[in-house]
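Lab channel / #folding
Pinned by the channel admin:
"Please post every new chain as: sequence first, then the structure tokens as a reply. Keep commentary short and put observations after the output so the thread stays searchable."

First post following the new format, from NK:
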Amino acid sequence: MMSARIVLLLATLLCVAAAVASSLEDHDHHGGHKSWRCARRCEDRPWHQRPRCLEQCREEEREKQQERSRHEADRRGEGSSGDEREREREQEKEKEKEKEKEKKDRRRPYVFDRRSFRRVVRSEQGSLRVLRPFHEVSKLLRGIRDYRVAVLEANPRSFVVPSHTDAHCIGYVVEGVGAVTTIENGERRSYTIKQGHVFVAPAGAITYLANTDGRRKLVIAKILHTISVPGEFQFFFGPGGRNPES
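Reply from TO:
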């Protein structure tokens, strides 16, 4: 009976020794100081707890190895996608420039360039561009919210179909020469216009014009005084025209 117990004890000690050897082999393969320290701690445990302790050490080492492999794969991925990251950085720089420009524009709400206008009509004969309502641009300009600005461009030898609008209009000829006709309360008035001239078209008056120059555009800047909804107006074209939203 005593010899059987001795044999069982020797078998257990051999299992513990094998587990320690396996742990040391894992340490040699991975070179992990933490796994070695873990195995050394297991030696201080009671003999019946050592196999489980060593198994936990191996599990921790496997998890750490997997984590190192993931980090290595991430680093390789960063190297292969360098061009894409460079493009992203360039896009971020462009966005920052746009934001900076918007901030500058907000500090100068009374300065407008060609990009500030929205094109509402465009054809082979010309175009009509309208500036957005002043009170939408800045609170500093809410005092002129009833006024809008538009620019009409007519190509050489072109004709602008009859139209009227629900806003009073003052037109200034910026460039070119032509002829304008207004019809108000059945009374017809025709004028020859050229650069520097100013003409008036009351709300509801039918207006049509022609570019009589064969080489240059006719450019007319318009100041519109809205009478219905502040800052809102609409053009109404005759047959063959197009009614823009403004």
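NK: Confidence is low (pLDDT under 50) at residues 23-31.
TO: also worth noting, The domain at 115-230 is CATH 2.60.120.10 (Jelly Rolls).
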